[in-house]
Amino acid sequence: MSIMFACQSPIAAAVLQLLLAAVMSAQHINVTVDDVSVSLKDSGSLTGEKYTLGKLKRLAITCRASSSGVLSPSSFFWRLENSNSSATVDARITVDTKLADNGLSGTSVLNINYPVKSDITNFVCIVNQTASATGRFLSAPLLTMKVDGANEYDVAMWPGESVAILCLVEGNPMGDIRWTKSVDPAFNLTNNNTLYLSSVSYEADRGYITCASKNRYGENTARLFLRVKSPLSFLTPLVAIGCEIVAILVIVVVYELYNKRRRQVVDGDDPKSE
Ligand SMILES: *[C@@H]1O[C@H](CO)[C@@H](O)[C@H](O)[C@H]1NC(C)=O
Ligand SMILES: *[C@@H]1O[C@H](CO)[C@@H](O)[C@H](O)[C@H]1NC(C)=O
Ligand SMILES: *[C@@H]1O[C@H](CO)[C@@H](O)[C@H](O)[C@H]1NC(C)=O
Ligand SMILES: *[C@@H]1O[C@H](CO)[C@@H](O)[C@H](O)[C@H]1NC(C)=O
Ligand SMILES: CC(=O)N[C@H]1CO[C@H](CO)[C@@H](O)[C@@H]1O
């Protein structure tokens, strides 16, 4: 009966078709998202590690949806994982959605200009609230070493002191943590983000401390130099002060001898004449 009605009235037929399309698109949406891998560039520092994503001017995550019904640009919605608001609230992020001529499929590209560390998260593409897929900004781990909350590349310590070195890892996926000491190849601590060294010594601890992390997108390391002072190093300033005292004494004695000699010449060999 409805088919008959549709055939008799073109307007009614069009309405029916749209309703049907809406129902079908809700049932048959197929979303795929391209994984994008990001390789991080070392900014070139020697000690300590600074990683910048800045060399990548733009990152694109693509969400493809196909449907048995009609899609529109507003069918696509992007958000960050753990957030309900649109990803495009961030001015660096734009979305470019293109639909096929028949409206049955579409591609929505999320563009991130000048990616920053906080972009290392999952972006979620939702199509008409019925299908969603996660576009992952995947990266090799980023590492930062901290001592007492500060980024450190060089830590000076006296023998006997203790230190807790924290290695922060950011990555997607996360990655492991491995610690090494340049002075002790047998040293092995894994999967603990804190390296605690109690009562450090010049022989056993002075050198580079490195933390490394690897995932399937790559490996990065961060290191700091643990400058344990030599137990004898307090002597150095004492020796320097001693040398200065000797030098001053020598100058004073030489000057006195010279003066005495000059007076002897002037006064005619009579030092008691003062
Ligand atoms: C639906 O998604 C699958 C991957 O899950 C893909 O292989 C297939 O080509 C997609 N179908 C269409 C019509 O795009
Ligand atoms: C997102 O919205 C849902 C309900 O719509 C709410 O339960 C949830 O707490 C919200 N999450 C965030 C991170 O705002
Ligand atoms: C370090 O220890 C872990 C387990 O604790 C082990 O899997 C790994 O092979 C060890 N590495 C070295 C170099 O000894
Ligand atoms: C990590 O190392 C710290 C300091 O040595 C230690 O107190 C802690 O128990 C370790 N944690 C794990 C999970 O091994
Ligand atoms: C909930 C939601 O996002 N619905 C959208 C589904 O797609 C139509 C266009 O086809 C949009 O107008 C709706 O806003």
UniProtKB/TrEMBL annotation:
Leader peptide range in chain numbering: 1-26
Alphabetical keyword list: Membrane, Signal, Transmembrane, Transmembrane helix
Organism: Macrostomum lignano
Superkingdom field: Eukaryota
Tagged with keyword Methyltransferase: no
Pfam families (alphabetical): I-set
All residue ranges annotated as the Ig-like domain in the record: 34-139, 141-229
Protein name: Ig-like domain-containing protein
Transmembrane segments: 234-255
